[in-house]
Automatic annotation (TrEMBL):
Pfam families: adh_short_C2
SUPFAM superfamilies tied to this protein: NAD(P)-binding Rossmann-fold domains
The organism of origin for this protein: Parerythrobacter lacustris
Name of the molecule in the record: SDR family oxidoreductase
Highest taxon listed in the record's lineage: Bacteria
C-alpha cells in the first residue's frame, strides 16, 4: 500500500498504549486517522495531536461500531487500513478457592461470555464491518488491493498463563479468525493479519514501575533480548510494515523479544 496516497485509517483503542502509538505512526506516515475509543478526553487529545478525528465507539455495540465507521468515512473517506486494538475482558481461573465458602468456585459462564464478546466477537465485528466498506470501494494498488485489516492478539494466545483462561483462549480465537477471513476476502483484495505482542510498556504496565519495582525488574529480565519491555512504537513499526507490504497476508506475528511465558 502506497502511503503517499494519503489513505484513511481506523484505529480502535487509539487513545492509549499500542493503539495510540500506532495512530501517531500512521498519521506520521501520511494516513488520515480516525480514533475509536470510549476514553473521550484522551481520544480527543490524541486526535488533535495527530490531525485526525475522534469517535466515541463502544466495541461491544454493533450500532456504535457501525456509527463510528460511518462518521470516520464521512470525515476521511473509505478506510484502507483498520487496526483493532481495543478489547474488554475479565480475569479468573477456571476454578478458584473461595475462602468465604471454604470450597472451589467456578469462573462463571457469564464472565467468560463477556470476555469472548469483548475480545473475539468484537474483533470479528470491527473487521467485518470494515471489510464491507473496503469491498465496495475501488482497488488502490496494481494487485487489486482494497485494504488491510490488522487484529491484535497476544502471546497469551499461545502461552496462556494461570488466570488467563478467558484472555488466552479468546486471543487464540482472534488468531483463528485470520486465515479463514483472509481466504474469505482474497477475491476482494483485502488482507487480514494479526500481531501477538508480548509484554509492552503500556500505561497499565508502566504503573508497576513505581508501584512494584522488584516486579518491574523481574518482568524486564524475563525477556530474552532485549531485556526490557517492548516499546509501543515497536508495535506501531510492525503495523506500518504490514500495511506497506502487500504480500503479507493470513499471518500471525509474535512480537515479544523471544519471550515464552511460563505457567504463572
Amino acid at each position: 500500500m502506497d502511503f503517499a496516497q494519503g489513505h484513511a485509517a481506523v484505529v480502535t483503542g487509539g487513545a492509549s498504549g499500542l493503539g495510540q502509538a500506532s495512530a501517531r505512526a500512521l498519521a506520521g506516515a501520511g494516513f488520515k486517522v480516525a480514533i475509536f475509543d470510549i476514553n473521550d478526553e484522551a481520544g480527543k487529545a490524541t486526535a488533535r495531536e495527530i490531525g485526525g478525528t475522534f469517535h466515541h465507539v463502544d466495541i461491544m455495540s454493533e450500532q456504535s461500531v457501525e456509527d463510528g465507521f460511518a462518521a470516520a468515512r464521512a470525515a476521511h473517506g473509505q478506510e484502507r487500513l483498520t487496526l483493532h486494538c481495543a478489547m474488554a475482558s475479565k480475569r479468573g481461573k477456571t476454578l478458584g478457592w473461595d475462602k468465604e465458602v471454604g470450597g472451589y468456585k467456578r469462573l462463571s459462564t457469564e464472565d467468560y461470555a463477556f470476555g469472548a464478546e469483548g475480545i473475539l466477537v468484537a474483533s470479528y465485528r470491527v473487521a467485518s464491518i470494515s471489510a464491507l466498506g473496503m469491498a465496495n470501494s475501488d482497488p488502490v494498488t496494481e494487485d487489486g488491493e482494497r485494504g488491510a485489516i490488522i487484529l491484535t492478539a497476544s502471546v497469551a494466545a499461545q502461552d496462556g498463563q494461570i488466570g488467563q483462561v478467558i484472555y488466552g483462549s479468546c486471543k487464540a480465537g482472534v488468531n483463528g479468525l485470520v486465515l479463514p477471513m483472509a481466504r474469505d476476502l482474497m477475491d476482494l483484495g483485502i488482507r487480514v493479519n494479526s500481531i501477538m505482542p508480548g509484554i509492552f510498556a503500556t500505561p497499565l504496565m508502566l504503573g508497576m514501575k513505581d508501584r512494584n519495582p522488584p516486579m518491574w525488574a523481574q518482568l524486564n529480565a524475563s525477556v530474552p533480548f532485549p531485556k526490557r519491555l517492548g516499546n509501543p512504537e515497536e508495535f506501531a513499526s510492525l503495523v506500518l510494515e504490514i500495511a506497506r507490504n502487500g504480500y503479507i497476508n493470513g499471518h500471525q506475528f509474535r512480537l515479544d523479544g523471544g519471550i515464552r511465558m511460563p505457567s504463572k
